[in-house]
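User: Is it possible to get a 3D structure for a protein together with its bound compound? The compound here is zinc ion. I've pasted both below.
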Amino acid sequence: MSRFHMCMSVRGILSRSNRELKRMLPMFTRDDGSHYATTDQLRDALLDEIAKGHEVLPMGKCDNFDWKDGCKGHEEPAEVEAGIGGKA
Ligand SMILES: [Zn+2]
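Assistant: Yes, that's possible. Here is the predicted structure of the complex:
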């Protein structure tokens, strides 16, 4: 079993209307954890991501992320749940 993180298309976000983007503002943070005050600031930051070759953005903490394809998946320790080996 693999677990996948959600990701968002940068171009998809940029194609939204300002009205929609404004609603999405709280979902985005800068590297320092602060929020964008305006949709213009967010659009600017997203264009920077495109410039870096980033097509998608991770939702949440992902340590196996591809900036073009998104989360590559995380192996779940299924054997533990199945009870192989007894108590961990
Ligand atoms: Zn992931």
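The radius of gyration is 17 Å. The longest strand covers residues 7-9.
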